[in-house]
Design goal:
By secondary structure, the protein is mostly beta strands. Helices cover 2% and strands 53% of the residues.
Length: 189
């Protein structure tokens, strides 16, 4: 005679992300589920911004079916994982583009870059949309002390669509390349 003890699979937890690439200042949501599918379980959120060690940020409680969500606004390339009991999820990564805007003030234009640090001294590129549907670089612009640049558009007859663009190298570590909204400029002559 003997006894057979059947144990279920070890605890596990899944993790995913709603948007793997965001623009600086925008939110994404990490979510997942625990393997016992029970509500009321405590799940620890671990966050690791680029170049630093993982940090315990908060604990969330599972809802129906053992699921959980955590809205977050990463400021740069960030790795997320979660811990439940002795189980740790596979990590998920959210990459970040600096926020690059292009606006008109009077007869001039202002390009501004937003991120977790200054972009002073970095370069952006003014680009026009060609008749073949490609973005063609027109000029290189150096950013000032406030991560911005005021400039005049080139005079080119007709309706031209412009944007400003920043490469990954100019954005720096922890960031992807980025581009601004497009603006249309019209010169009669």
């Amino acid at each position: 005679k003997g006894a057979v003890y059947v144990k279920g699979p070890p605890p596990s937890v899944t993790l995913g992300v709603s948007a793997p690439i965001v623009i600086y200042g925008d939110q994404t949501t990490v979510s997942g589920a625990v393997s016992n599918q029970k509500a009321g379980e405590s799940v620890l959120i671990l966050v690791q911004p680029y170049g630093s060690s993982p940090q315990q940020t908060t604990t969330v409680t599972t809802g129906t079916g053992g699921t959980f969500t955590y809205p977050t606004t990463p400021t740069m390339f960030t790795t997320y994982s979660v811990k439940w009991k002795n189980a740790v999820s596979q990590p998920v990564v959210v990459q970040v583009r600096p926020r690059l805007t292009l606006s008109k003030i009077g007869s001039r234009y202002v390009a501004k870059v937003g991120g977790s640090h200054t972009f002073a001294g970095r370069s952006i590129y003014l680009q026009r949309h060609s008749q073949f549907g490609q973005w063609v670089t027109v000029s290189k612009l150096k950013l000032g002390a406030r991560s911005g640049r005021i400039f005049s558009m080139p005079h080119r007859k007709g309706r031209i669509t412009y944007r400003v663009y920043m490469t990954t190298n100019q954005a720096g570590v922890g960031y992807l390349e980025t581009w601004s909204n497009a603006v249309r400029v019209y010169y009669r002559r």
